[in-house]
Structure formats: structure tokens, C-alpha cells
Amino acid sequence: MTSKPIRATIVGGTGYTGAELVRLVLAHPSLQLASIVGNASAGKSVADVLPSARGIVPGDVQPFEPDAIAEQADVAFCALPHAASAKAVSALRQRGQKVFDLSADFRFEDLAVYEAWYGKHPVPERLSEAVYGLVELHRDELRDADLVAVPGCYPTASTLALAPLVKNGLVRPEGISVDAKSGVSGAGRGVSSATHFSETAEGVRAYKAGAHRHGPEIEQELSRLAGVPIRIAFVPHLLPMTRGILATCYAQPVDSSLTAARCIEAARELYQGSPSVVVLDEGQHPDTLWVRGSNRVHLGYAQDRRGGTVVAMSAIDNLVKGAAGQAIQCLNVRFGFDEGAGLQALAQWP
User: Fold this and answer.
1) Is 153 part of the annotated catalytic residue set?
2) What is the rounded CA–CA span in Å between residue 109 and residue 85?
């Protein structure tokens, strides 16, 4: 482990995920914030673009200049939109930079799957470099990774809930459904009528039912664990709150003797030692308020007494464990730090 602070640049540091990365980097005992990059706001003071950084982070937002970033930073976090991120990541990798990418551009093993959902990939030759950054399932691979594809928020919540069941063959690979609900910050900082306060404050609605890009990402990870192809029904919903995801997943047991207690046991075995995963006792259900602002995920398991359906529940903060915090957790593993370094703050409750 190095004794010198690791210098980190945040590319796309003026959005919600970028702002969360700034907060977490500043709180990390072994990281130093080198710069905040954002082309649209380049030249503006950090304080004007990120009001929460006023009086804490001096200077201006920098333009994206790969040579300058490579000179001033040891690692880069990229929080850019899909496709745009791939080009930036490739430019940084050409200069030997270690990159933690928070877009979908390097999450898929199969190029055809990516292009079916996101369009033509700008740098497909780099897909093989990337390691999927769901730490609890890819910890060993991350120790040597120089390009990390940080998972999406919905896949993080859903996969962590279902992984113990699928990995241990406790549920059938067919017929899995995921009903997930997210706060509006998941849509980003850009102005949109769909996430305007007046449009979201008094209602709950599904969106992109059966057609959300995160569905194939969940399927990729579950299929890897199961050893057979898995297809899921995935329906996200928008809730009138700022942060949080609650994923409620349904699956059919392979054996009628399966109990919620056995599901809990499997989850605790799989996630033993994780500083981020908390498996609740039987009868307890996760709540997004309990994890708000933290890098923790709360998992709960139940069973429908009449039909036998297994219910796997997960609550995360979409901006922390679902994005920025997970990126920091990946960095901790990559550099040999304690996995929970800089991520131990309690949730903001109430």
C-alpha cells in the first residue's frame, strides 16, 4: 500500500454522481482531489457549479484535456453519459491512466448486447480490458484492474438481492421478475419535464417497462452466476423522492422446502465480511431511508406462504452504492486499502 495520497480527477464532476464523488473523495483518508472536469461548465468556479463545495473546493472546473489529467492525477473517475464516456476513457487509458467508469460503456461482455441497447460502441477494442465493478461478486478480478466498469444502480440493487439465490441454485432460472423503484436523482441533473417537481411530487409511475437498458445488465450477471442464460421481467418506477432504490424481486423456488431463513443464510454466507452488505433478519424489510447517503445495501428475504414465491428485497442509495460509493469501493480493492475506507459514514437518518 502506498503512503502517498492517490490523486483523483473527476471527469463529469458537476452532475449528481460527480458531486457525490467529490464528497467521497474529500472524505477518503488516502485520496486527494486533483481536479474537477466538466466541459460545459469549464472555466466556471467550482463553488458556482457545485454549491455544496463552496468554501471547501477552490478553483475552477477544468476542461477535458487528457494530457493534463494524466499529469496531475493517478486515477480518473468518469461520470459522463454513455458513448461520450467511452471516448474519454479510451483517451485516458492511452496515457496509462487507471479509470473507474460510471457509464454503461464497458459493462457488457457481449458487444452485440451493448449495441442493441446503446448503439454503436466508439471503442469496442477496449471492452476486454474492463472488469465489472460489483465488488461483492468480482473482488478478486478487481485487484489488478486498470479499467473498471462501475455497475448501474438498478443492477446493483437487483443483482445483490438475487445473487445468493441464483448462485446456490435455490430458485428457478426462469420466471424471475424485478420491480424496482427509484428517486428522481437517478435521471441526472439535466432539466426534464419528466422529473420536474410538479410532475413527480404527488405520483408514482412505471417507465420503460420491459425496455429499460439495465435489464440486460442484470441478466448478464445472473446468467454468469447460474451458468445458464437467464431472462428477467424488469419494470422500474419513479418515486417522488430524491435518493434511493428499492428493488423487490420475485423468483420460484426449485424445491418446496425452501424457506426465507435458508435464503438469508445463503446471503450471509455469500456476503460474509463485506463492509457494505447488511442482511436483515427474517421478518424485516429494507427501507431506502435506512441507507440514504451511505454505501450500504440492506437485503431482506421473505416467502409467499400460499404460492411459495421467494421475495428478495434490496435498498440502496442510487448515488452512493449505486454509483459514486461503489466506484470508491472498487478503488479501495484495486489499491489494497480497507474495502470500506472512506465509506463508513452512517446513513442520513431521518
Assistant:
1) yes
2) 17
| Longest CA pairwise span in the chain (Å) | 63
Q: How confident is the model over 237-253, as pLDDT tens digits? A: 999 999 999 999 999 99
Nearest alpha-carbon partner for 171 in 248, 229, 253, 233: 253
CA dihedral 150, 340, 20, 75 (to 10 degrees): -60
- Mapped onto helix, strand or coil, the DSSP state of residue 77 is strand
Q: What's the pLDDT at 241? A: 94
Q: What is the per-residue pLDDT across 43-74, written as a single tens digit (0 to 9) for each?
A: 999 999 999 999 999 999 999 999 999 999 99
Sequence-ordered list of residues with C-beta below 8 angstroms from that of 300, at least 6 positions apart, any chain: 279, 280, 284, 285, 286, 312, 313, 314
Query: Cα-atom radius of gyration of the chain, to the nearest Å?
Result: 20
Contacts of 192 (CB under 8 A, 6+ apart): none
Domains of the chain: 6-129 (3.40.50.720), 154-317 (3.30.360.10)
Q: Which of 78, 153, 249, 330 is catalytic?
A: 153
**Dist. CA 103–CA 90, nearest whole Å:** 13
Residue 195, judged by CB atoms within 10 A of its CB (0-12, 13-18, 19+), counts as: middle
pTM of the model: 0.96
Residue 296 — left, alpha, or beta (φ > 0 → left; ψ -120 to 50 → alpha)? beta
Q: Are strands 310-316 and 245-251 parallel, antiparallel or unpaired?
A: antiparallel
